[in-house]
Design goal:
With 381 residues, the chain is an alpha/beta fold. It is 42% helix and 12% strand. It is built from 15 helices and 13 strands. β5, α6 (130-135) and β6 (141-144) form a beta-alpha-beta unit.
Length: 381
């Protein structure tokens, strides 16, 4: 929100609300203006025109970005309420979102009124893994593949669908509607691992996003009435390619990694041996002195209770992860400036009818106004 002197760098909630509705708002706001009034989103416009709609994310499907397309609430943290809105809110008597794929199963189960069972009763397929998603025959589906965020592509078990698998499934279902569709696909974990300064996780997730983008482009080339827009709501972590005085960035070391910094930190925090975990995660030898530093941070987390000392535990987990990631940052010459978001311009790419509107330097709200223009004023009552 440009009128807020405290925060002039966006979070995902405000950024996604700008993308989804064309309105700037305060950080944390989901589909509402600064005075907390509900605003129409491009997904809601699509549904009001009789189109099919979908949200796909590697994060919890109730997370800020998907939420801002189909929910309206004063705080992104109210994920139980966001899940309820996904189910309860209707347009012309129909559910707002036909295809919901991602993490966040905890917000749809017993602790929040068995929302998943309500969706099933209304004719949705409920799926929990890649095979079930592939076998799903219904046009509407709720796929929840993790309790919270989905595991990173580099660490994920084989039964987990990748971002491209979820996108392909969504496209095959949504494209059956002759009136068209709107689909938002988020490679959410690029940001999540930017926050943790995890270059391995970031690059793994970028690779997954690249595959999904290529598949979206192939679909658009085969369906010339399709508009594809790829962008980011902000950058995260202040990633620097080229740290120190060597004029070089070397991705080979990152490409050799077998697991992410996130995976190694979580394994060690859960009590696994430091040396074994580092050997399992790293694609090159890590020196004894570096392992000693990691061991020191691992010992410090042992005495903390994740539930009772949440803030202390999370701060120490980040210290542990920093120690684990230092060898890969050093080897690849990767630098970071922050654990938060950064305020530089982000790239936007568009292809298909109307894509010429995405040119030059545009405001984030224009993503929404251009998509509203693409849909036209054909609102079906």
């Amino acid at each position: 929100n440009p009128d807020d002197p405290k925060e002039n760098i966006t979070d995902s909630a405000a950024g996604a609300t700008a993308f989804s509705s064309g309105h700037k708002t305060y950080n944390g706001a989901i589909g509402v203006t600064p005075d907390k009034k509900t605003v129409e989103t491009v997904l809601e416009r699509a549904k009001s025109q009789g189109k099919s709609t979908g949200l796909v994310s590697t994060a919890e499907i109730t997370d800020a970005t998907p939420a801002a397309y189909a929910a309206h609430i004063d705080s992104r943290d109210k994920k139980d309420e966001i899940a309820k809105q996904f189910y309860n809110d209707r347009i012309n008597g129909k559910h707002k979102v036909d295809v919901l794929l991602g993490g966040g199963a905890k917000y749809f189960g017993k602790e929040n009124g068995d929302i998943d069972k309500k969706f099933k009763k209304d004719g949705y397929d409920l799926v929990k893994n890649k095979q079930q998603l592939a076998n799903s025959k219904k046009d509407q589906v709720l796929g929840l593949f993790a309790d919270k965020n989905m595991p990173l592509q580099i660490d994920a078990p084989k039964q987990n669908p990748l971002l491209s698998d979820m996108q392909d499934a969504a496209l095959s279902k949504l494209s059956k509607n002759k009136k068209g569709f709107f689909l938002m696909v988020e490679g959410a974990s690029i940001d999540k691992q930017g926050h943790a300064n995890d270059i391995t996780g970031v690059m793994s997730e970028m690779s997954g996003f690249e595959t999904a983008f290529e598949n979206a482009m192939k679909y658009a080339q085969q369906h010339p009435d399709t508009l594809v827009v790829a962008t980011a709501d902000h950058s995260t972590g202040g990633l620097t390619i080229g740290k120190g005085k060597d004029y070089k960035w070397d991705p080979k070391a990152i490409q050799s990694m077998k697991h992410s910094g996130k995976w190694m930190a979580e394994e060690i925090a859960s009590g696994k041996y430091v040396t074994k975990t580092i050997q399992a995660g790293y694609g090159f030898d890590v020196s004894k002195s570096q392992i000693d530093v990691i061991q020191k941070e691992a010992d410090a987390i042992k005495g903390l209770d994740e539930k009772k000392d949440k803030a202390k535990y999370e701060a120490q987990l980040q210290k542990l992860q920093d120690a684990i990631q230092k060898p890969i940052n050093d080897q690849s010459h990767t630098g970071w400036t922050t654990y938060g978001h950064t305020g530089e311009d982000v790239n936007t790419y568009a292809y298909g009818p109307g894509s010429n509107q995405w040119q030059g330097n545009i405001d984030n709200t224009e993503n929404a106004t251009h998509i509203f223009d693409f849909f036209g004023n054909n609102v079906k009552n």
